[in-house]
Amino acid sequence: MRRSPDEVSELRAPSCRVASSVEKENLNTSGALLHRLNHVTKMFPELNSLLECNKKNLPNGKSLVIIDSQTDGSFLLHHFISLYIQGGGKVVMLAFAQSFSHYSSVAQKLGINLNSACDDKTFVFLPGLKYTLDGIINRDVENPLLDTSNCKSLHSLYQAINSAISANENQSLPTLLIIDDISTLLYLGFQHTEICTFLTYCQHTVCKKTNGCILSLIHNDSDVEDQSSNLLSRWFHHFADIVLELEGLQSGRSKDVHGQLKVVFTRREQNDLHSLSPLSRCVHYRIRDKGVSFFALGTSPAIL
């Protein structure tokens, strides 16, 4: 079902959609983390190990996606913001779900001043709804990113991203493009095919031209029948180099285990004999007062 821009605005917090009862519990847990973090310089060191990256080895040239179901995966975005800024890179945030003050508040608790980063042009905040509505009003019939059937264009979004990346004075500076969250475009009525085209353009600009990284967040709740969301989620498994799938526990919320994370490497090195089979790693996670801990399945302290 398509929503008007006004309806989308009402659903913006925390993730531009109505949450299920199970998801609300997980959102409360995730939100508690964002308000209680206390100057953690390394947010999720275990996650860096899972992704085989760190601030000295950024995932440049790669496309990543966070797909959450029955939980809120947005807390992972703050890890990547911290990773790139501490690693001497640049972050371009295309935000639909939260305001700049939200990201700034969380970053400050991680020891990062996003206001200073904005002054240094190492953090660029782009309000997604503004550029989307501009594209709907100011249509360009000659642009290939145009939705001619509904007179809606994603061209303004792409132009804003391209300008933010091109304004990089130091072209060797690694750039991370974050889209939080791509589901909003579905709620606005864009077809998944149009969103795929838009993301392909962004990938070419960020990953191919600047050797940067693109990170998208999409919601695909298993208890909601949404064909467009399902199609887009499946497409991401072909588009992205690394897929981070977060799920709430099927047994319900637990005080010791808050969810499950599955990291899928869709592309392997050419000299890898198992390159045709994606590598996946699955762990449980628990959100704590000062961070998030990841551990192997079945190894929760409560079980051991």
Q: Could you please describe the fold and organization of this structure?
A:
Strand 4 (146-147) and strand 5 (152-153) form a beta hairpin. The strands form two sheets. Strands 3-2-6-7-1-8-9-10-11 form a nine-stranded mixed β-sheet, with helices on both faces. It has a single domain, classed as P-loop containing nucleotide triphosphate hydrolases (Rossmann fold, 3-Layer(aba) Sandwich). It has eleven helices and eleven strands. It has 304 residues and is α/β, with parallel strands linked by helices. 38% of the residues lie in helices and 21% in strands.
The CATH topology comes to Rossmann fold
Radius of gyration from CA coordinates: 19 Å
Helical run tally: 11
Helix coverage percent: 25-40%
Structural class: alpha/beta
How would a textbook summarize the main sheet? 9 strands, mixed
The overall average pLDDT, rounded, is 78
CATH superfamily: P-loop containing nucleotide triphosphate hydrolases
Choose one word for the global shape.
globular
- Quickly name the level 1 CATH class: Alpha Beta
